[in-house]
Amino acid sequence: MDQQDTGAQARRTVNPSGMASPGGHYSHVSIANGLVFVSGQLPIDAAGTKLTDKPFEVQVEQVLSNLAAALSGAGSDVTKLVQVRVYIVDIGQWATFNEIYARWAGDTRPARAVVPVPALHFGLQVEVEAIALA
């Protein structure tokens, strides 16, 4: 866990164990002012394997597993989600995503946006970022 002081408010960053190392110059989680900001999570497993050739459903399950791990590593959880942003390559997969997400989130219903995009890194099909309470 990294600690960074931003002046009046301390901010800390977290890269939870059980998740692949970030693939760029960022942390999986940044915590500030009682909020947990989770960087975009791609369907990459803990060993760093990119699930490019796996079906959309498997990719969604991995992304949501990564999101849960990031939240847990920050001392938060799914019930504390405030906003979720979803990027999908094929908007035709929206219903499938929504079904898997609803099972995963249960009674939690944070604000959410689903954004169709032309492409994601490594040819992956879905990415999710979120904000939660600490």
Can you walk me through this structure?
The chain has a single domain, classed as 2-Layer Sandwich (60s Ribosomal Protein L30, Chain: A), CATH 3.30.1330. 22% of the residues lie in helices and 31% in strands. The chain contains 2 helices and 7 strands; from the N terminus they run ββββαβαββ. The chain has helices spanning 56-73, 94-105; strands at 2-5, 10-14, 29-32, 35-41, 81-88, 111-116, 126-133. Helix 1 runs parallel beside helix 2. 26% of the residues are buried. The model is unreliable at 1-8 (pLDDT under 50).
Short description:
With 134 residues, the protein is of the alpha+beta class.
Distance between the termini: 15 Å
| Secondary-structure element string | EEEEHEHEE
What is the tally of helical segments?
2
- The CATH architecture can be given as 2-Layer Sandwich
Mean pLDDT: 93
CATH superfamily: RutC-like
- β-strand percent reads 25-35%
Number of domains: 1
- What strand line-up does the widest sheet have? 1-2-3-4-7-5-6
Write the layout of secondary structure elements.
Elements: E1 2-5, E2 10-14, E3 29-32, E4 35-41, H1 56-73, E5 81-88, H2 94-105, E6 111-116, E7 126-133
Parallel strand pairs: 5-6
Antiparallel strand pairs: 1-2, 2-3, 3-4, 4-7, 5-7
Helix pairs in contact: 1-2
Labels describing this entry:
134 residues; alpha+beta; 60s Ribosomal Protein L30, Chain: A; 7-stranded mixed beta sheet; 2 helices; 7 strands; 22% helix; disordered N terminus
